[in-house]
Design brief:
Length: 461
């Protein structure tokens, strides 16, 4: 995916802006700046041969979309629409993936219960699903409670579900007391299993707000979450944007071109990449810190941002990708299935693939014990699914280990660091940071949008 790619050597005239990273954030930043400054010279540099980053789109090299990115928010979807319209694709926003996830299920014992995803995001739905799942797997649920309780305040209980006095509901007690209280709360009230399983869902599914959510908070967020799940293959959207004349005029795209280092001399960025050296008046780092710290030296980072990056770690996801062999069998699966006993979620994304995903603490190696354990859980989940629907999936296509997001897990003490990301603007007049990792929200999409806005406001060229 290469537009007017510069292939070699130093450019004599510096670019107005160099964007390092062609994930969602980098692409949208390029589209936004190109629309706002049509006469500018922008360079987007991506190390992979395809754009899309963690969306990992299909291409001749990657014939199928990968990893099971399950859905993006209405707001981020709106940003894509704006980008397409700004570049003349008015009326053609139909290239955007139209599908939305509709159904969610819980696989417990030998039963797969499913319902609409909108119902799931209500206390009532949570209670129904949670109850079904939990009644079969008390020990596992207890374990989830034990972990979830570390960060889950349960003192704002839901009125609708709050049947009678809840003597066990904690007040503003210590974490330990909360943990104990939630365990007790779970044993005492019929609403607890629902909340607990929903919390598991939130963590595993990347909608972590629900971790912090007592059922009352869930009710408040129901409409937000039910609208967020736009999914599909984003390749066509990206290609359409790349091919638009107004985009092509302003933005050069260089893929398969890893940046190796960068320096700032006399107010001009000098960026060395595998295919050439580039100069630019401004730089947007559109990749998470666990990638960007490899090439942007420490002295060039805003110290406070670097401090947060060094004190925190992203959460990893282990993905087992399977090919669907019987469409008939696979069509019996909900869009998302949770297997509480394995802490696994199964995602269908509208293609011929099924993704088994497990969230773990940050790991880099497929050989790490936590990853090996997660792969075993994924395979057990696959077996459970196959016992229920023989022929739904075939042998493993690939196994991947990916950092998902910075702010995702409530099980870490990282929150207090991440909160700092929302407290000040780290961008300078010639350096900005965009992406899901640059913001305090559990919701990566919100961080992408906020960091894009902030970059646009701060960078002047
Ligand atoms: C399995 C999985 C499931 C997910 N599910 C969801 C979901 O359902 N909903 C949701 O909203 N989010 C989900 N996410 C998170 C979502 O993928 C990210 O929030 C989003 O893609 C981040 O986009 P980004 O542009 O900030 O970063 P990235 O997509 O990581 O983009 C950074 C880019 O920089 C490039 N790069 C890195 N180093 C260099 C270098 N040295 N030189 C040049 N380029 C470089 C990378 O190749 C990459 O393309 C999921 C993620 C995973 C892994």
């Amino acid at each position: 995916m290469e537009n007017t790619a510069p292939t070699s050597a130093s450019e004599s005239k510096p670019y107005d802006l160099l964007i390092a990273g062609g994930g969602i954030a980098g692409i949208l930043a390029a589209a936004k700046f190109a629309a706002a400054h049509p006469n500018s010279r922008i360079l987007l540099v991506e190390r992979e041969t395809v754009l899309g980053g963690r969306l990992r789109q299909s291409s001749p090299q990657l014939p199928r979309p990968g990893y099971g990115l399950s859905g993006i928010s209405d707001a981020l979807y709106g940003e894509w629409q704006d980008a397409l319209v700004a570049h003349g694709l008015v009326g053609e926003t139909s290239v955007l993936p139209g599908s939305r996830q509709q159904t969610v299920g819980v696989l417990a014992g030998n039963r797969l219960a499913q319902q609409t995803i909108d119902l799931w995001f209500t206390p009532k739905g949570a209670r129904i699903l949670g109850g079904m799942a939990a009644s079969k797997h008390w020990p596992e649920v207890e374990e989830i409670v034990r972990q979830g309780a570390v960060a889950a305040p349960v003192d704002d209980a839901d009125e609708e579900l709050d049947a009678g006095d809840d003597e066990s509901a904690p007040t503003q007690a210590s974490k330990a007391a909360k943990s104990h209280a939630l365990g007790h709360y779970w044993k005492q009230t019929r609403k607890a299993p629902a909340a607990i399983v929903l919390e598991h869902f939130g963590s595993a599914f990347g909608i972590p707000d629900v971790w912090d959510a007592a059922p009352e908070a869930l009710a408040q967020r129901a409409s937000f979450h039910s609208g967020r799940l736009h999914c599909g293959d984003w390749s066509e959207v990206i290609t359409s944007l790349m091919n638009q004349p107004s985009f092509q005029t302003a933005v050069s795209v260089s893929t398969g071109n890893r940046i190796v280092n960068a320096d700032l001399q006399d107010g001009i960025w000098h960026v060395n990449a595998e295919k050439g050296q580039y100069q630019a008046a401004a730089l947007i780092v559109a990749q998470p810190p666990w990638q960007a710290t490899a090439w942007l030296k420490r002295t060039l980072w805003p110290p406070a941002l670097l401090q947060v990056a060094s004190k925190t770690k992203p959460v990893s996801v282990v993905v087992l990708s399977e090919k669907i062999i019987s469409t008939e069998a696979a069509n019996l699966l909900p869009d998302v299935t949770i297997v509480p006993s394995e802490k696994v979620q199964i995602v269908r994304d509208g293609t011929d693939a099924v993704y088994f995903q497990a969230t773990i603490d940050f790991e880099l190696s497929l050989q790490a014990p936590a990853v090996v354990k997660a792969v075993k859980a994924l395979k057990r989940a696959r077996k459970k699914l196959q016992q229920l629907h023989p022929g739904a999936v075939t042998e493993t296509n690939f196994i991947a280990l990916l950092p998902v997001a910075w702010a995702q897990s409530p099980l870490h003490g990282d929150r207090r660091w991440l909160v700092r990301l929302g407290q000040k603007n780290f961008n300078a007049a010639n350096l900005a940071f965009c992406g899901d990792a640059y913001g305090p929200s559990y919701d990566g999409d919100a961080n992408i949008l906020k960091s894009l806005t902030s970059a646009c406001e701060t960078l002047k060229f």
